[in-house]
Please model this.
Amino acid sequence: MSILPNKKQIDSSYILSFFFRNYLKLHNLFVSDEAYAKKRYKRKFGKELDLKNPKTFMEKMQWLKLHNQKLIQTTCADKIAVRDHVKDKIGEEYLIPLERIFSKASEVIPENIPNFSVIIKCSHNSAAYTIVKDKSKIDWKKERVRFYNSLKQNYYEQAREWQYKDISPKILVEKLLVDKYGNIPNDYKLFCFDGVTKFIQVDIGRQENPKRNFYDTNWKLLPLRLNLDNGKDIPKPKSLDLMIELAYKLSEDFSFARVDFYTLNDKVYFGEITFHPGSGFGYYDSNGVLDEQIDSYISLEKFK
Model:
């Protein structure tokens, strides 16, 4: 058992978060982004990271992190700024309703939160959120501590993803998408290469017993696994063709981008755009069946 605090403990403590932030700042001063990528890659995959001739999907992710840095990526990573980008590209009808924007954690009080189900998250980081279905069941003091610490963090320093570096930290409150049973709909994550969707990750049952499936664009279940066990085969969504069309418009300017959508009552909602899923340290396990195929999807020739 590790004696070091975990991320949840750090985010819930002013003191731990202070030391964690300053440790990252010092680490950033003395360890370059490339050195960080090489060290973490070797620790994760047990082999050296080849940046001179990257061949695998994850090696190419690391290369793109270091060498393909565009201002539009910062716009897309910012959960508030991306809304205007989506509005311009595909239309505001695909945006989840935005209810509040806060600049300070002290504003996160029940009086400022709508009386319906919402999700509270930050504009400048990833995978940190609070779902509120009943305000009376939330420990708002603890939430304010967590969001205070989150606003102080520069998410770039945690995994060296350049696009997060200059995002202005804010707190946003969105309407929570739920079906008639109160369940959050499946999350469809389209892996797009120069705009073309090659495969789709579906996160199923994220609240309880989460599973994860992968499909091709013909909705054939792929022998692919990432972090979670595969679930039962699910029906092809009616709006799949629309999601693929929208994903193309949002990702055509990028060598790679993952574009996320939800569907609810036959309506499509934009989730987010991600450029380096898992910061490029994920292990897409296909038992060797799809490795070369996936690795071939990203071409770096245009950058040479």
Q: What stands out?
A: The CA atoms of residues 199 and 216 lie 4 Å apart. The beta strands are 98-102, 118-122, 129-132, 171-175, 187-193, 196-204, 211-215, 256-264, 267-274.
